[in-house]
Design brief:
With 131 residues, the chain is an alpha+beta fold. It has helices at 2-18, 69-77, and strands at 27-33, 46-50, 56-58, 61-63, 86-99, 102-117. Strands 3-2-1-5-6-4 form a six-stranded mixed beta sheet, with no helix packed on it.
Length: 131
């Protein structure tokens, strides 16, 4: 009986590990340069508004490598991303970066698609750009 119980627990553990973590769940975000400047990294110069929660996360970098080619071309050719003019779909994750010999776990938005144009009300945290 204990062998069967052990097998059940092992199978349950494997299933739990295979499920996506809440941090990797996709949501919609407005990403932008927030106008803050600093002299020492890490710097909170960019922020995102999570449209699902209304939470603003400061100091976020963005990874656009998973955008489809058409969406990537749009973000490369204009300031729509950094000016908060678009809503992107993606997930938040933490990545370790080293600055001056110290490791920091920093938030990254991994963008997977462009959803739509952002509303003015969704861009309020982007105070460095003209609205």
């Amino acid at each position: 009986m204990s062998g069967l119980r052990h097998a059940f627990l092992a199978a349950t553990a494997l299933l739990v590990c295979a499920l996506p973590s809440p941090a990797m769940a996709e949501s919609s975000y407005v990403y932008c340069d927030n106008g803050l400047r600093c002299f020492k990294a890490p710097c909170p110069s960019n922020s995102v508004l999570d449209l699902a929660t209304g939470k603003i996360i400061k100091g976020v970098s963005i990874d656009t490598s998973r955008l489809p080619p058409k969406d990537k071309a749009m973000t490369d050719a204009s300031d729509v991303l950094y000016a908060g003019k678009i809503v992107v779909r993606g997930s938040m994750e933490h990545r370790t970066q080293t600055f001056t010999g110290k490791d920091y776990s920093l938030p990254w938005l991994v963008a997977t698609s462009i959803v739509r144009t952002a509303k003015d009300s969704e861009r309020k945290h982007c105070f460095s750009r003209k609205q």
